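Reopening this one. Same input as before:
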Amino acid sequence: METSTEGVTEAHSGDTAAAEPPVVAGSTAAAGESATAGGRLAIAPASLSPSRASDFMQCPLLYRFRVIDRLPEKPSEAATRGTLVHSVLERLFDAPAAERTAPRAKSLVPGQWDRLRESRPEVVELFADDPEGERLARWLGEAERLVERWFTLEDPTRLEPAEREMFVEAQLDSGLKLRGIIDRVDVAPTGEVRIVDYKTGKAPRPEYAEGALFQMKFYALVVWRLKDVIPRRLQLVYLGSGDVLTYDPVLADLERVERKLHALWEAIREATETGDWRPRPTKLCGWCDHQAHCPEFGGTPPPYPLPVRAAGPEPAEGPAHGAAAS
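Same output, byte for byte:
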Protein backbone atom coordinates (compact mmCIF):
# COMPACT_ATOMS: atom_id res chain seq x y z
CA MET A 1 0.00 0.00 0.00
CA GLU A 2 2.65 2.46 -0.87
CA THR A 3 1.77 5.90 -0.45
CA SER A 4 -0.89 4.03 1.15
CA THR A 5 1.02 1.38 3.07
CA GLU A 6 1.52 -1.57 0.79
CA GLY A 7 5.14 -2.46 1.27
CA VAL A 8 5.79 0.17 3.92
CA THR A 9 6.35 -2.38 6.63
CA GLU A 10 7.17 -6.03 6.30
CA ALA A 11 4.49 -6.82 8.83
CA HIS A 12 1.84 -5.32 6.62
CA SER A 13 3.07 -6.64 3.31
CA GLY A 14 3.16 -10.18 4.58
CA ASP A 15 6.88 -10.66 3.96
CA THR A 16 8.75 -12.04 6.93
CA ALA A 17 12.34 -11.35 5.99
CA ALA A 18 12.58 -8.32 8.23
CA ALA A 19 11.25 -10.27 11.17
CA GLU A 20 14.00 -12.88 11.16
CA PRO A 21 16.07 -12.85 14.35
CA PRO A 22 19.60 -11.46 14.23
CA VAL A 23 22.58 -13.75 14.35
CA VAL A 24 24.14 -13.68 17.81
CA ALA A 25 27.70 -14.45 18.76
CA GLY A 26 28.36 -18.15 18.86
CA SER A 27 25.31 -19.10 16.80
CA THR A 28 25.60 -21.26 13.72
CA ALA A 29 23.58 -20.58 10.57
CA ALA A 30 21.87 -23.47 8.86
CA ALA A 31 22.70 -24.55 5.35
CA GLY A 32 21.85 -21.81 2.85
CA GLU A 33 21.95 -19.15 5.57
CA SER A 34 24.60 -16.70 6.67
CA ALA A 35 24.91 -13.38 8.43
CA THR A 36 24.46 -10.02 6.73
CA ALA A 37 26.91 -7.18 7.29
CA GLY A 38 24.54 -5.92 9.99
CA GLY A 39 24.62 -9.23 11.86
CA ARG A 40 21.14 -10.38 10.83
CA LEU A 41 20.43 -13.82 9.49
CA ALA A 42 20.30 -13.80 5.70
CA ILE A 43 17.96 -16.37 4.17
CA ALA A 44 17.23 -16.98 0.51
CA PRO A 45 13.79 -15.66 -0.53
CA ALA A 46 11.05 -18.24 -0.01
CA SER A 47 7.87 -16.36 -0.94
CA LEU A 48 6.61 -13.40 -2.90
CA SER A 49 4.31 -10.56 -1.90
CA PRO A 50 2.96 -7.73 -4.08
CA SER A 51 5.33 -5.20 -2.56
CA ARG A 52 8.41 -7.34 -3.02
CA ALA A 53 7.39 -8.29 -6.54
CA SER A 54 7.06 -4.57 -7.30
CA ASP A 55 10.48 -3.95 -5.74
CA PHE A 56 12.14 -6.46 -8.06
CA MET A 57 10.39 -5.08 -11.12
CA GLN A 58 11.42 -1.57 -10.12
CA CYS A 59 15.03 -2.43 -9.26
CA PRO A 60 16.53 -5.89 -8.56
CA LEU A 61 19.19 -4.34 -6.34
CA LEU A 62 16.50 -2.67 -4.21
CA TYR A 63 14.89 -6.08 -3.77
CA ARG A 64 18.22 -7.49 -2.60
CA PHE A 65 18.77 -4.64 -0.13
CA ARG A 66 15.31 -5.11 1.39
CA VAL A 67 14.89 -8.88 1.35
CA ILE A 68 18.39 -10.35 1.61
CA ASP A 69 20.59 -7.65 3.17
CA ARG A 70 17.62 -6.23 5.07
CA LEU A 71 19.18 -2.81 5.23
CA PRO A 72 17.40 -0.41 7.57
CA GLU A 73 15.18 2.29 6.09
CA LYS A 74 14.05 5.49 7.71
CA PRO A 75 10.32 5.90 8.24
CA SER A 76 8.67 8.58 6.12
CA GLU A 77 5.80 10.85 7.06
CA ALA A 78 3.73 9.80 4.03
CA ALA A 79 4.14 6.07 4.56
CA THR A 80 3.57 6.29 8.30
CA ARG A 81 0.45 8.39 7.75
CA GLY A 82 -0.78 5.66 5.40
CA THR A 83 -0.28 3.04 8.09
CA LEU A 84 -2.15 5.22 10.59
CA VAL A 85 -5.11 5.83 8.28
CA HIS A 86 -5.37 2.14 7.46
CA SER A 87 -5.50 1.23 11.15
CA VAL A 88 -8.26 3.79 11.76
CA LEU A 89 -10.40 2.46 8.90
CA GLU A 90 -9.89 -1.08 10.12
CA ARG A 91 -10.88 -0.26 13.71
CA LEU A 92 -13.93 1.77 12.71
CA PHE A 93 -15.73 -1.46 11.73
CA ASP A 94 -15.52 -2.62 15.34
CA ALA A 95 -18.36 -0.18 16.03
CA PRO A 96 -22.01 -0.92 15.24
CA ALA A 97 -23.03 0.24 11.77
CA ALA A 98 -24.98 3.27 12.96
CA GLU A 99 -21.96 4.56 14.89
CA ARG A 100 -19.55 4.46 11.96
CA THR A 101 -19.48 8.20 11.45
CA ALA A 102 -16.78 10.61 10.33
CA PRO A 103 -16.46 12.23 13.79
CA ARG A 104 -16.01 8.82 15.40
CA ALA A 105 -13.41 7.83 12.81
CA LYS A 106 -11.46 11.05 13.35
CA SER A 107 -11.59 10.49 17.10
CA LEU A 108 -9.73 7.20 16.59
CA VAL A 109 -6.68 8.91 15.10
CA PRO A 110 -4.88 9.90 18.35
CA GLY A 111 -5.31 6.48 19.92
CA GLN A 112 -4.14 4.64 16.80
CA TRP A 113 -1.13 6.96 16.62
CA ASP A 114 -0.25 5.97 20.20
CA ARG A 115 -0.57 2.29 19.26
CA LEU A 116 1.63 2.79 16.22
CA ARG A 117 4.34 4.46 18.29
CA GLU A 118 4.28 1.54 20.71
CA SER A 119 4.53 -1.10 17.99
CA ARG A 120 7.04 0.81 15.86
CA PRO A 121 9.11 3.09 18.13
CA GLU A 122 11.20 4.25 15.16
CA VAL A 123 8.34 6.44 13.89
CA VAL A 124 8.91 8.76 16.85
CA GLU A 125 12.03 9.94 15.01
CA LEU A 126 9.80 11.61 12.42
CA PHE A 127 9.01 14.42 14.85
CA ALA A 128 12.16 14.46 16.96
CA ASP A 129 12.90 18.02 15.75
CA ASP A 130 9.39 19.24 16.53
CA PRO A 131 9.53 20.04 20.27
CA GLU A 132 6.39 22.21 20.18
CA GLY A 133 4.41 19.55 18.32
CA GLU A 134 3.28 21.92 15.58
CA ARG A 135 4.38 19.71 12.68
CA LEU A 136 2.93 16.64 14.38
CA ALA A 137 -0.41 18.43 14.82
CA ARG A 138 -0.49 19.30 11.10
CA TRP A 139 0.43 15.73 10.19
CA LEU A 140 -2.33 14.29 12.37
CA GLY A 141 -4.74 16.81 10.86
CA GLU A 142 -3.83 15.55 7.39
CA ALA A 143 -4.56 11.99 8.52
CA GLU A 144 -7.96 13.11 9.84
CA ARG A 145 -8.79 14.76 6.51
CA LEU A 146 -7.94 11.57 4.63
CA VAL A 147 -10.18 9.59 6.97
CA GLU A 148 -12.97 12.11 6.53
CA ARG A 149 -12.68 11.98 2.73
CA TRP A 150 -13.28 8.24 2.80
CA PHE A 151 -16.88 8.93 3.86
CA THR A 152 -17.46 10.72 0.54
CA LEU A 153 -16.38 7.56 -1.33
CA GLU A 154 -17.95 4.74 0.69
CA ASP A 155 -20.71 4.42 3.28
CA PRO A 156 -19.44 2.25 6.14
CA THR A 157 -22.92 2.05 7.68
CA ARG A 158 -23.88 -0.15 4.72
CA LEU A 159 -20.79 -2.34 4.78
CA GLU A 160 -20.10 -5.44 6.83
CA PRO A 161 -16.65 -6.65 5.73
CA ALA A 162 -16.10 -10.38 5.75
CA GLU A 163 -12.42 -9.75 6.46
CA ARG A 164 -10.20 -6.85 7.47
CA GLU A 165 -6.42 -6.84 7.21
CA MET A 166 -6.68 -10.42 5.98
CA PHE A 167 -3.43 -12.36 5.74
CA VAL A 168 -3.50 -14.67 2.73
CA GLU A 169 -1.02 -17.26 1.58
CA ALA A 170 -1.23 -19.77 -1.24
CA GLN A 171 1.22 -22.16 -2.82
CA LEU A 172 0.98 -22.60 -6.57
CA ASP A 173 1.41 -25.96 -8.27
CA SER A 174 4.97 -24.93 -9.14
CA GLY A 175 5.80 -24.55 -5.44
CA LEU A 176 5.90 -20.74 -5.55
CA LYS A 177 4.39 -19.34 -2.34
CA LEU A 178 2.40 -16.10 -2.61
CA ARG A 179 1.43 -14.08 0.43
CA GLY A 180 0.16 -10.69 1.49
CA ILE A 181 -2.41 -8.76 3.50
CA ILE A 182 -5.68 -7.55 1.97
CA ASP A 183 -7.19 -4.37 3.46
CA ARG A 184 -10.80 -5.48 3.17
CA VAL A 185 -12.84 -8.32 1.71
CA ASP A 186 -16.56 -7.83 1.13
CA VAL A 187 -18.84 -10.77 0.36
CA ALA A 188 -22.31 -10.16 -1.09
CA PRO A 189 -25.31 -12.25 0.00
CA THR A 190 -25.02 -13.93 -3.41
CA GLY A 191 -21.44 -14.96 -2.62
CA GLU A 192 -19.67 -12.49 -4.92
CA VAL A 193 -16.34 -11.29 -3.53
CA ARG A 194 -14.94 -7.76 -3.66
CA ILE A 195 -11.34 -7.01 -2.71
CA VAL A 196 -10.77 -3.44 -1.48
CA ASP A 197 -7.51 -1.60 -0.94
CA TYR A 198 -7.12 1.88 0.55
CA LYS A 199 -4.53 4.24 -0.90
CA THR A 200 -3.68 7.48 0.85
CA GLY A 201 -2.02 8.88 -2.25
CA LYS A 202 -3.60 10.17 -5.44
CA ALA A 203 -5.01 8.04 -8.22
CA PRO A 204 -2.55 7.37 -11.07
CA ARG A 205 -3.04 8.72 -14.55
CA PRO A 206 -4.89 6.28 -16.84
CA GLU A 207 -1.68 5.15 -18.55
CA TYR A 208 -0.36 3.95 -15.19
CA ALA A 209 -3.55 2.25 -14.01
CA GLU A 210 -2.33 -1.22 -15.00
CA GLY A 211 0.62 -0.93 -12.65
CA ALA A 212 -1.68 0.12 -9.84
CA LEU A 213 -3.91 -2.91 -10.46
CA PHE A 214 -1.01 -5.38 -10.33
CA GLN A 215 -1.27 -5.67 -6.54
CA MET A 216 -5.01 -6.27 -6.74
CA LYS A 217 -4.71 -8.94 -9.42
CA PHE A 218 -2.04 -10.58 -7.28
CA TYR A 219 -4.53 -10.77 -4.41
CA ALA A 220 -7.26 -11.98 -6.75
CA LEU A 221 -4.97 -14.80 -7.89
CA VAL A 222 -4.29 -15.83 -4.28
CA VAL A 223 -8.01 -15.80 -3.41
CA TRP A 224 -8.79 -17.82 -6.53
CA ARG A 225 -6.18 -20.42 -5.64
CA LEU A 226 -7.34 -20.56 -2.02
CA LYS A 227 -11.10 -20.46 -2.47
CA ASP A 228 -11.56 -21.48 -6.10
CA VAL A 229 -13.52 -18.24 -6.51
CA ILE A 230 -12.62 -15.42 -8.88
CA PRO A 231 -13.32 -12.10 -7.11
CA ARG A 232 -16.13 -10.22 -8.79
CA ARG A 233 -14.51 -6.81 -8.30
CA LEU A 234 -11.19 -5.24 -7.39
CA GLN A 235 -11.49 -1.78 -5.89
CA LEU A 236 -8.80 0.80 -5.15
CA VAL A 237 -9.96 3.71 -2.98
CA TYR A 238 -7.66 6.73 -3.37
CA LEU A 239 -8.14 8.98 -0.36
CA GLY A 240 -5.57 11.50 -1.55
CA SER A 241 -7.59 12.49 -4.61
CA GLY A 242 -11.05 11.17 -3.81
CA ASP A 243 -11.11 8.63 -6.66
CA VAL A 244 -12.23 5.02 -6.80
CA LEU A 245 -10.68 2.71 -9.38
CA THR A 246 -12.49 -0.59 -10.04
CA TYR A 247 -11.72 -3.59 -12.19
CA ASP A 248 -13.65 -6.80 -12.74
CA PRO A 249 -11.16 -9.62 -13.34
CA VAL A 250 -11.70 -12.69 -15.47
CA LEU A 251 -9.90 -16.02 -15.46
CA ALA A 252 -7.53 -14.97 -18.25
CA ASP A 253 -6.34 -12.03 -16.11
CA LEU A 254 -5.37 -14.30 -13.24
CA GLU A 255 -3.66 -16.79 -15.53
CA ARG A 256 -1.58 -13.98 -17.04
CA VAL A 257 -0.60 -12.75 -13.58
CA GLU A 258 0.37 -16.27 -12.56
CA ARG A 259 2.63 -16.63 -15.61
CA LYS A 260 4.18 -13.24 -14.89
CA LEU A 261 4.88 -14.16 -11.27
CA HIS A 262 6.48 -17.45 -12.28
CA ALA A 263 8.81 -15.61 -14.66
CA LEU A 264 9.55 -13.04 -11.98
CA TRP A 265 10.32 -15.73 -9.42
CA GLU A 266 12.69 -17.50 -11.82
CA ALA A 267 14.56 -14.23 -12.27
CA ILE A 268 14.73 -13.77 -8.47
CA ARG A 269 16.01 -17.32 -8.00
CA GLU A 270 18.68 -16.81 -10.64
CA ALA A 271 19.85 -13.56 -9.03
CA THR A 272 19.82 -15.22 -5.58
CA GLU A 273 22.01 -18.10 -6.75
CA THR A 274 24.45 -15.99 -8.78
CA GLY A 275 24.54 -12.90 -6.58
CA ASP A 276 23.93 -10.80 -9.70
CA TRP A 277 21.58 -8.05 -8.51
CA ARG A 278 21.72 -5.13 -10.90
CA PRO A 279 20.42 -1.62 -10.22
CA ARG A 280 17.78 -0.23 -12.55
CA PRO A 281 17.95 3.58 -12.41
CA THR A 282 14.62 5.42 -12.57
CA LYS A 283 13.22 8.71 -11.32
CA LEU A 284 12.30 6.85 -8.12
CA CYS A 285 15.99 6.60 -7.18
CA GLY A 286 15.76 10.06 -5.63
CA TRP A 287 13.59 8.63 -2.84
CA CYS A 288 15.70 5.54 -2.19
CA ASP A 289 17.30 5.14 1.24
CA HIS A 290 20.12 3.02 -0.15
CA GLN A 291 22.02 5.42 -2.40
CA ALA A 292 25.14 5.03 -0.21
CA HIS A 293 25.21 1.32 -1.16
CA CYS A 294 24.20 1.73 -4.81
CA PRO A 295 26.82 1.71 -7.63
CA GLU A 296 24.67 4.19 -9.58
CA PHE A 297 25.49 6.74 -6.86
CA GLY A 298 29.10 5.72 -6.34
CA GLY A 299 28.28 3.38 -3.48
CA THR A 300 29.27 -0.21 -2.83
CA PRO A 301 26.77 -2.91 -1.84
CA PRO A 302 27.58 -4.82 1.35
CA PRO A 303 29.26 -8.21 0.90
CA TYR A 304 26.75 -10.69 -0.49
CA PRO A 305 25.68 -12.84 2.48
CA LEU A 306 24.40 -15.92 0.64
CA PRO A 307 26.32 -18.72 -1.08
CA VAL A 308 26.94 -18.10 -4.78
CA ARG A 309 26.60 -20.80 -7.38
CA ALA A 310 29.94 -21.67 -8.93
CA ALA A 311 30.17 -21.04 -12.64
CA GLY A 312 30.30 -24.22 -14.70
CA PRO A 313 33.34 -25.07 -16.89
CA GLU A 314 33.47 -23.69 -20.41
CA PRO A 315 32.31 -26.28 -22.96
CA ALA A 316 35.17 -28.03 -24.73
CA GLU A 317 35.80 -27.06 -28.33
CA GLY A 318 34.83 -29.86 -30.66
CA PRO A 319 32.78 -30.77 -33.71
CA ALA A 320 29.57 -29.69 -31.97
CA HIS A 321 30.99 -26.27 -31.03
CA GLY A 322 33.63 -25.43 -33.58
CA ALA A 323 34.32 -26.21 -37.19
CA ALA A 324 33.01 -29.47 -38.62
CA ALA A 325 35.45 -32.39 -38.49
CA SER A 326 37.23 -33.11 -41.73
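So the earlier flakiness isn't reproducible anymore. For the record, The mean pLDDT is 87.
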